[in-house]
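New to this. Look over this protein:
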Amino acid sequence: MSHFSDRTFSLAAVVVALLMFVMAGVVGGPDYGSDVAAIHSLAVERSTHAGLTGRAIFITHFGGAEEMVTILLIALALLVILKRWRSALVLAGIVLGGRMTVELLKLLIDRPRPSFTPYPVEIVSLSFPSGHSANSMITFLALALIVAPVKYRMAAVGAAILASAAIGATRPLLGVHWPSDVIGGWAFGIAWVVALVELSQGWRGAAKK
């Protein structure tokens, strides 16, 4: 695929992801029947399938702040050992900047969580976008695009999306997020990483001229 085609694909991915993010933010939450119905349906699933909550809690913890930051630090250490200083800076900036932006979006949008008490896991912030979904997508996708060797990059991207999908899917199942929160989180994560990786590559190319 040519460089022009790569950039065109990246731009299209960012635009589609941003549209999904906006749609999930506008059409979702406690005032929309599809989200409310999904939360009630998932609550029934939890009550009728013993052990489902426990398995969901186990998976959801992999998207927590401590786990994500630990993965980031390991990746940064590897890049430093390999003397890939620029890649380390780009990775840290994308992941940490993304985390801060997600928290800012939560405050600005101010969507309440589903009213499910008691929550089976601890919650500390507002609902949209889902931090577990957004931050896992940002971290895993950034690792795939920046750290993974080129020949394994497509496989790494697929694995990143699947891992984030598994983590995000647990959030409505546990009753702590609306489904649209999760979709919005995934969409924001994709748009953020693809856009910033593309920009970092453009800056790198300009610096070499």
Observations:
- Residues 3-203 form one domain.
- The chain has one domain: 3-203.
